[in-house]
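note to self: dont lose this again. the chain is below, predicted strucutre after it. 169 aa total, dont forget to put it in the shared folder this time
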Amino acid sequence: MGIRYQFLLLTLFILLLFSAQTVAQNEVLREQNSLYGIQEFGVSVNIERPLTLNSIPFDVDSVRQLIVNKLQALPVRIIGEGALKRSDQFPLLHLHINIMNDVGGIHPFSAELKFYQPVKLPLNNDIQTMGSTWSDSFIGVVAPDLMNFIAAKSAGLAENFRSDYESVN
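---
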């Protein structure tokens, strides 16, 4: 009886482990598939930093241009900033960079790239809103003299976006 019980527990554990992996794989496929058929989108960047950090060697426009350069090979139209400001219904690739206070001579930071597009909420009378359908992110630390690394690495997330876009289009 003891061996059967152990075998049953081991079998249930293995099934649970594989089902968790399947769910994670399905989520990645859903994110990739959400990019199918996208023909145009805008690119925006937001940089958050503490007031004690007087200046950084990059700005929103330069990081946005780095992202646009990494996406040039895609068969999509990048919507200009003026059109993006006039409407909230365009798909949007948004990068948020958060640089935190200096801790022992280094700056912790995070970067998150999300793709937003119009979605309908079927449980709420098909109200249309913007929803995040794809995302990628990372965290890191950098010395004050290597702050440009943040811009380059953050814009590098666009390569993951490009790769996922190309895999479904």
